[in-house]
Amino acid sequence: MALLNLIEKDQATGRVAEIYETMIKNMGFIPNAFKVFSPSAHVLDTQFNNLGYYMRHKTLGGKLLAFIRMLVSENEKCKYCVGMNAGILFQYGVLPDIIEQIKQDPSKAPLEEKELAMLLFVLRVVKDSNSIKQKDVDKLRNLGWTDTEILEATYHGTTQVGVDKIFNAFQIETD
Questions:
Q1: What Å distances lie between residue 80 and 33, 51, 134, CA to CA?
Q2: Which of 8, 16, 128, 163 could anchor a disulfide with 12, C-beta 3.0 to 4.6 Å?
Q3: pLDDT for 111-124, tens place per residue?
Q4: How far apart are CA 148 and CA 135, in angstroms?
Q5: Rounded to whole angstroms, what are the CA distances from 147 to 116, 131, 136, 151?
Q6: 171 Cβ partners below 8 Å, 6+ apart?
């Protein structure tokens, strides 16, 4: 049981109710990953809008983003997010034994060179942001990434750290 009082569908009002209805329409249920934000309509709305933005991203693919979230969450020991994103990766054809290998060595992620470089960059930012140098950003640019994409992938990974900490702190349950 979560440590916060989460708002259930039948208790939801205003923007929380609107978001819940959209989730039910699109996903068939309201994941605990969103219920945990329900005590604050502002925070829930922010998370909901971020999810929508990244789900429709034109250049940062779903597989890359799932790897970013899963590996950041593995580092943060967030079982909920590791499991959720491993499930998403399974839908992309990444089998559980391969996922375990990638957790040990992210450079083995089955991504094209450009995406793998982005994944490893974001993981490095999360692990030690002070280690990033101009040559690291230039490498991504040389592979064809724009500054917008570099920032957005990095933002996605670094905000995952905060989400993991919230999920762990308030002990949300797996759906």
A1: 8, 16, 35
A2: 16
A3: 999 999 999 999 99
A4: 17
A5: 17, 18, 12, 6
A6: 1, 2, 3
> Taking each helix axis from N to C terminus, what angle separates 41-55 and 14-27, rounded to the nearest 10 degrees?
30
What does the domain layout of the chain look like in residue ranges? 9-55, 62-170
Q: Return the CATH number of the domain spanning residue range 62-170.
A: 1.20.1290.10
Residues 6+ apart with CB under 8 A from 7: 16, 35, 38, 39
User: Angle CA(163)–CA(145)–CA(107) in degrees, nearest 5?
Assistant: 65
Task: Give the pair of three-digit tokens for residue 35.
Answer: 């219920």
Structure tokens at 141: 């640019």
> Looking at residue 175, what is its pLDDT?
85
pLDDT on residue 1 = 78
Q: Of all residues in the chain, what percent are helix, strand and coil, respectively (each to 5)?
A: 75, 0, 25
